[in-house]
């Protein structure tokens, strides 16, 4: 090989290496996406909008079909595309396609006749107020339930000292009355009253839910509270008077003599109030 | 013969391809809860529903406000509303898709998607009895729902929780719009 031939051969290699090395700087080979849009009967759909969106870059290009239902989207860089087609009176359709550099791609699509959309809550006539709740509404319900749960448990606990108070009334009144019997009865009564008013607090101050009229056994439960509530105030007051009279060696007299009747009425109303929400009438 | 075929196509095709819609005319939905002391049924007549048919398929949507269920005790109903997160998610919705020709079958097996308490549960092939009376289509059946399907803690009364099963009895009357 002559020197000149060597130079020419070397120049070819240098040129080839240069071309390979600078390849990324060349304009990328683009593709043309084309196809036909028809309806389900095979009839060409003219003026359909065809939108090609590069899923990597988000770049879009829109064209329309001609009278023969044919479209062509030129100069698309290689990559993955979502092609969506819409036309008046037909359901829109989308399809994915991958374009390789420089190679043309064909995508034919058939559109179905547009039907009514699946029903929505708006179709059912629900207003946003009816169909959308809120965390605040739920928080109110949660607080109400929480307080009433405490009310319920404390109410059951209160029944125990209440029953014990009733039982020990034998040792606090009548001929067999003793000072220790009265003390025990008064102590149990005080415990009962304390628990009772704590129980009542959690019911009275539980949040009310607007627009919910009271119905069912809970109505009886509330009516009975109007009996045992005042009874729980009167009973200790009358009991204190009776206690003092007996401690002074007197026979219980005057308004204090109503202590037993008021206490019994209160205890019965309380028991019925628990039963009213425990037994299905 | 050709004329006969064209006539059939002209008369039959529009009917076959026509979109139809259904509306829920009246309904009774009732859940059943078992408690050691009580057997409770909560009933609602407040459901609303619509069905849209297209291409041989019908999409139905039924929705009912949670607070519309009446168990006969307002306190219990408010408690149920709370445990089922009805303050935040006030509606129970049921979606189903049926083949349009199911309307001619005496038993319909439906795949239900139910949204309740912010959760979605699917019940497959739930059988419903179907009776057509004139223009009305009566559907009855029971959805085998459970509280755990919707991540609902069983409510309790007197510290005793209710059972997990809350079957929902469905009685609906649909008519074409």
Provide the fold topology.
The complex is a heterodimer of chains A (281) and B (177).
Chain A: H1 3-21, E1 31-39, E2 49-54, E3 60-64, E4 70-76, E5 79-86, E6 93-99, E7 105-106, E8 109-111, H2 128-131, H3 135-167, H4 179-204, H5 217-247, H6 259-276
Parallel strand pairs in A: 1-7, 1-8
Antiparallel strand pairs in A: 1-4, 2-3, 2-5, 5-6
Helix pairs in contact in A: 3-4, 3-6, 4-5, 5-6
Chain B: H1 2-17, E1 20-34, E2 39-44, E3 48-54, E4 57-65, H2 74-83, E5 91-99, E6 107-116, E7 119-133, E8 136-143, E9 156-157, E10 160-161, E11 168-176
Describe the structure.
- The complex is a heterodimer of chains A (281) and B (177).
- By secondary structure, chain A is α/β, with parallel strands linked by helices.
- Chain A folds into two domains: 28-111, Immunoglobulin-like; 136-276, Four Helix Bundle (Hemerythrin (Met), subunit A) (Up-down Bundle).
- Chain A has helices at residues 3-21, 128-131, 135-167, 179-204, 217-247, 259-276, and strands at 31-39, 49-54, 60-64, 70-76, 79-86, 93-99, 105-106, 109-111.
- In chain A, strands 1, 4, 7 and 8 form a four-stranded mixed beta sheet that branches.
- In chain A, a hairpin with a 6-residue loop joins strand 5 (79-86) and strand 6 (93-99).
- The N and C termini of chain A lie far apart (117 Å).
- Chain B is mainly β and 177 residues long.
- Chain B has one domain: Beta Barrel (Lipocalin).
- Helix content of chain B is 15%, strand content 52%.
- In chain B, strands 1-3-4-5-6-7-8-11 form an eight-stranded antiparallel β-barrel.
- Chains A and B meet through helix 3 and helix 5 of A and strand 3, strand 4, helix 2 and strand 5 of B.
């Amino acid at each position: 090989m002559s020197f000149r031939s060597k130079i020419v051969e070397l120049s070819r290699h240098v040129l080839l290496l240069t071309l390979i090395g600078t390849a990324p700087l060349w304009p990328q080979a683009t593709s043309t996406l084309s196809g036909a849009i028809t309806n389900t009967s095979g009839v060409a759909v003219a003026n359909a909008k065809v939108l090609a969106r590069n899923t990597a870059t988000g770049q879009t290009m829109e064209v329309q079909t001609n009278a023969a239902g044919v479209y062509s989207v030129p100069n698309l860089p290689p990559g993955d595309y979502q092609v969506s087609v819409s036309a008046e009176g037909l359901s829109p359709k989308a399809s994915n396609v991958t374009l390789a550099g420089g190679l043309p791609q064909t995508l034919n699509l058939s559109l179905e006749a547009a039907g009514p959309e699946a029903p929505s809550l708006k179709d059912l006539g629900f207003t946003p107020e009816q169909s959308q709740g809120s965390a605040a509404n739920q928080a109110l319900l949660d607080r109400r339930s929480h307080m009433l749960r405490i009310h319920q448990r404390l109410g059951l606990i209160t029944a125990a000292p209440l029953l014990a108070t009733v039982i020990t009334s034998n040792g606090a009144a009548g001929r067999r009355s003793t000072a220790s019997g009265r003390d025990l009865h008064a102590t149990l009564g005080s415990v009962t009253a304390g628990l009772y008013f704590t129980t009542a607090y959690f019911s009275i101050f539980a949040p009310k839910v607007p627009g919910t009229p009271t119905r069912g056994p809970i109505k009886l439960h509330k009516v009975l509270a109007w009996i045992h509530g005042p009874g729980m105030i009167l009973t200790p007051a009358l009991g204190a008077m009776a206690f003092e009279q007996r401690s002074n060696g007197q026979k219980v007299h005057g308004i204090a003599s109503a202590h037993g009747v008021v206490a019994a009425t209160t205890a019965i109303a309380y028991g019925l109030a628990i039963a009213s929400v425990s037994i299905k009438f | 013969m050709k004329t006969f075929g064209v006539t059939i196509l002209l008369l039959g095709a529009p009917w076959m391809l026509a979109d139809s819609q259904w509306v829920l005319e009246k309904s009774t939905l009732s859940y059943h809860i078992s408690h050691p002391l009580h057997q409770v049924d909560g009933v609602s007549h407040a459901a609303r529903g619509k069905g849209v048919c297209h291409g041989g398929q019908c999409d139905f949507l039924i929705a009912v406000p949670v607070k519309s269920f009446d168990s006969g005790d307002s306190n219990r109903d408010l408690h149920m509303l709370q445990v089922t997160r009805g303050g935040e998610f006030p509606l129970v919705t049921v979606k189903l898709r049926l083949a349009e020709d199911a309307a001619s079958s005496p038993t319909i097996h439906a795949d239900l998607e139910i949204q309740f308490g912010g959760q979605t549960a699917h019940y497959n092939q739930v059988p419903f009895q179907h009776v057509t009376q004139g223009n009305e289509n009566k559907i009855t059946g029971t959805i085998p729902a459970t509280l755990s399907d919707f991540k609902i803690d069983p409510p309790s009364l007197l510290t005793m929780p209710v059972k997990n099963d809350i079957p929902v009895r469905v009685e609906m009357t649909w008519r074409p719009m």
